[in-house]
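Hello,

Following up on my earlier ticket. Below are the three sequence lines again, exactly as submitted.
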Amino acid sequence: MMRHAFKLFHVWVWGSTFLLLAATGTVIGFLLVRGWAGIGQELVFGETPVLAALMLQRPVFDGLFPAMVGTLALVMLSVGMALPVGLATGIYLAEYATGRLSSLLSLFFDILAGMPSIVVGLFGFSITIFLHHRFSGKIYPCLFISALSLAVLVLPYLIRTTQAALEAIPVDLRLIGPSLGATRFQNIFHVLVPHSLKSILSGILLAIGRCAEDTAVIMLTGVVVSAGIPKSIWGNFEALPFYIYYVSAQYTDAGELTRGYGAAIILLLLCAFLFGISFWLQHRLSQRMFERV
Amino acid sequence: MTRSEFLAKHGFMAAAIISAAVTLAIFIFMALLGYPILTSGRLFAALLGAWQPTLQSYGILPMITGTFILAILAVAAAFPVCLGCAALVSDAAPGLVGRFLHAVVRMMTGIPTVVYGFVGIFVLVPLMREVFGRGSGFSLLTAALMLALLVSPTMILLFCDSFRRVTHSYRQAAAALGATTAQQFLYVVLPQARNGILAGVLLGLGRALGDTMIALMLAGNAVAFPDHLFDSARTLTAHIALIIAADFDSPEFRTLFLCGLTLYVLTTLLVLGVRLTMRLPGRRP
Amino acid sequence: MKMNEAPAAKVELRNVRFDYGSAPILNGVTADFPAHCITAVVGPSGQGKTTLLMTLNRLWQEERPTVGRLAGTVRIHLNGGMVDIYQDRYDLTWLRRRVGMVFQSPNPLPMSIYKNVAFPLKLAGENRDHRMEERVQAALRQAFLWDEVKDRLDKDARELSGGQQQRLCIARSLILRPELLLLDEPTSSLDRRACEVIESLLAHLKESCTMVMVSHYLEQVRRIADRVMVMENGRLLPQAAL
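Thanks for your patience. The regenerated structure is below:
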């Protein structure tokens, strides 16, 4: 019986892999086949001339440009908010916290990491309600609240990668700074963090990707189907992933559907791009850090 | 300690406290806003009752059921495939091929769930309708299949990690005794990686429980208890997304926060479960 | 081998015990290391020689997590007087600027040669001093490395050979002019020629600082050490004759 098991082993492992790749390939392939024809200037800018749209002189109607700008604004705001807190927390966990405090904090962040995104969205929504009643009746779900909620979503990614990167530093590297009279902070700033830049950066890129692709959080905190370019952080906005969802549920004509495919392809390309940049940047930036002093 | 050292240490600590506070704040806000239901004495009715507005019953049990069935189905379907794939990537495939596949799987983790849902609607749903000829194609099974695809890359990477941690000397010993790749894997690696595999399954389960878009787009969203695999069902996550547009003071709305709390508690239990796998006898994952 | 001339003691260890929670590593070490001498500490590996060195600059307290425990007194003659370096109010960074350390494997930081040597100055806040270049040069000369690198100070330090890297690390630990230099088997990863250069520079350093060196090579010890101590069962015993 075992003998058959061993023969089947290779069938099993190669078969599983093939199945997985085929399924994923079908997903991607289907999008490309149906949507490739629609890719072009019109997909992004509709009828509006490119330059006018980019200079924000004329609004874009039947195009993805506003959604793309919305996604960009969202990503920059949320990562901007999450980065300092996440990085500092990761450093604290790796370099300052001891024993039980460290375990307890770790538990909290594991829970945060496993939190369903819709719950984070609900949290953002709750905050809006709270602010609406306590502070200003003019506060509604908006770009800021969405970005804040996304920041909460990606915070654990940043914490974890920073912490792991610092904890992976070999002991002999850790001791050089102190042996030369460096204070703990000097050691972190001049030796440990520069050494871990690659890993920290990869965590940041992961966070960026997560913000760009998330739908559940923004659905509850202010994204809409058509709002144009976001004019202020307290207003509504569009985003690519929500547009994709909306089209799938309520497309009215073939044109919209094609735009939906196009949006899906763009979002996919964006994610692939981020991974690619991750490897390239890791290499260049960490070298450049050492030239400063 | 100089002033800048003091500032640095307390600055970092403040950040950590903020991060921890956020985790707690989520729970607190859910509890605060769901307060009426929690204290109204109708908690059990809400948790364990069915959703029948005409009978004034706003129980979320159908959604809880939907969430569980969907997640378990998805992970069960994904498990053998993920295990096999991970075995290939870390053990059975020759060096370069293995590394290439590992990179491919890592890239796959970046595919957004809304994209899976989107393709699911236009490919999988009609397919299920044709092949099985029952219902509209929007069902638990459809969603479970797509969800399995979603959680697979994460599970594979976790399994790979735990395979790689199996002590090299054990593998070497087995190889020196003439064990084939298959035998090495089945006799040495797999048993040693037990805890890691369990952790991977739990994390996959967590991911499946917490997903919104696939459930929302593919599972049908009917509020009744699902009778069979081809039935339409609604999960807690989809429920939140659907009801959010309801009137603020309505009883339906209040159930949202109960759903949120339930999901929070489930997540916490899973995280604790994963931590427990670290304590189990056998190799640490 | 010089006879004991009873020079002033630079380091006084009294009944020092150290453990990591279980078996003791240092078990009542009592010794004096004289000033302006090279004291060699020899003995089988794993006996705690490196730990002994680290008690002198308190570097063991940088391990994460810190589980080591120390008892007994360690006093070093720094800045004009004998100091108990384990007093609570004693600033660690100040200590490590007066007590330098060279590790077994060269560990240059990923920076240029110049910046590596100047790094301690930056840490001490002394890099606004326009005499920085002079001090870097002086340190590199002391380490017998200046002539070999003076034309390529901005090249990455990791491009140097093993022996050169170790001399770079020595220069780096000398730039703040420490009174005590700790060396943990400084030449064990180097070939014989590189070894000889370093031994020679260490002998020259005696004028300006005191050295405690862990070594496995009895020949080396015979060549440059003024005093030899043997580490056995967690205790240090003087060994006058080799």
